[in-house]
Structure formats: structure tokens, C-alpha cells
Write a structure and sequence with these properties.
Elements (H helix, E strand, L loop, with lengths): L3 H6 L16 H7 L6 H5 L23 H9 L5 E4 L7 E4 L2 H9 L3 H33 L9 H5 L1
Antiparallel strand pairs: 1-2
Length: 157
């Protein structure tokens, strides 16, 4: 196996250990081994929702993916997938279906993807984060803070 990591550290025969060895059946190993198993390290602190795109976690109970998709992904094996870098620029596997074939044929439009991501993030921020901030500010303003011990510098202003 040859990856950027193996080249960087001069590793000729990498040994990849798995914290989820109990589910490492041959089909699963084949489906996720393209990154050399190192991709799992970066996902450690994230929740299943945050990494729903990864096949390692997409079938867990916590994943937001639809039950039918989870079932289908378990039924499929490596021969039911497409492997390419044309989807998002990073080597990945996609379920072989008409939508995946169309996406790979078109390739990724980075400026459009970036713009769509920014718009989506802004919509989420406006809908979910701003109301929380507003509620917190309103709550703080309505509190009687006169009994709180503040440093002299803070109360002087």
C-alpha cells in the first residue's frame, strides 16, 4: 500500500490497527481501506452526525442517514461501488447507481461547491445559532447582576 503518509515516513509495509476490529469483515475492510485506515484518526472526536459520509459510521444507530440507505449499504460489497477522485477531489468510493455515475461524469465544480457550502452554513447559522445567541443575551440582560462579585476594573467602567 502506498499513501502520502507511507511515503512521508518511508513506511514500506504499513500495519493498520483498528479500534473497531469486531466489525472488520473483509467487505468492510475493502470498502474503507483506500485511505490506509488513517482517516479514522481525524474523526475520533466527532459525532456520527458529523461524519455521516464515512462508511465506517454511516450504518450506526446515531447516523442521520435513512434506514433504507443503511440497509442497502450493508447489502452491497466492493464490487457494487465506484472508485474515483472526480467526485470531490479526494479518492472515495460511491455506491454504483445512476446518480453517482452522473456526478462522476460531471466532476466537481469547486467554486460552486464552495459557494453552496457557504450558503448552507449561513442558513444554518441564521436559523439555529442566532436565535440561541439572542435568547442568551436576553436572559443575561433580564438578570439582576448586582450581587455578582466583579473585579474592580470591570465595575469602574
Amino acid at each position: 500500500m502506498k499513501t502520502r503518509i507511507t511515503e512521508l515516513f518511508g513506511i514500506r509495509h504499513p500495519i493498520v490497527l483498528s479500534g473497531m476490529g469486531w466489525i472488520s469483515v473483509p467487505k468492510m475492510v475493502a470498502a474503507v481501506s483506500e485511505a490506509g485506515g488513517l482517516g479514522i484518526l481525524a474523526m475520533g472526536p466527532l459525532s456520527a452526525d458529523a461524519i455521516a459520509m464515512g462508511s465506517r459510521f454511516m450504518t450506526t444507530r446515531e447516523s442521520a442517514l435513512h434506514a433504507n440507505f443503511k440497509k442497502k449499504s450493508i447489502e452491497k460489497d466492493i464490487y457494487d461501488t465506484l472508485y474515483s477522485t472526480r467526485f470531490d477531489g479526494i479518492p472515495c468510493r460511491l455506491m454504483d447507481n445512476p446518480a453517482s455515475r452522473k456526478a462522476l461524469k460531471q466532476g466537481l465544480n469547486l467554486p460552486a461547491a464552495f459557494y453552496i457550502g457557504k450558503v448552507s452554513a449561513a442558513r444554518y447559522f441564521i436559523k439555529h445559532v442566532l436565535p440561541e445567541v439572542d435568547a442568551a443575551v436576553t436572559s443575561i440582560k433580564s438578570e439582576d447582576l448586582s450581587m455578582i462579585d466583579l473585579p474592580e476594573e470591570a465595575s469602574a467602567s
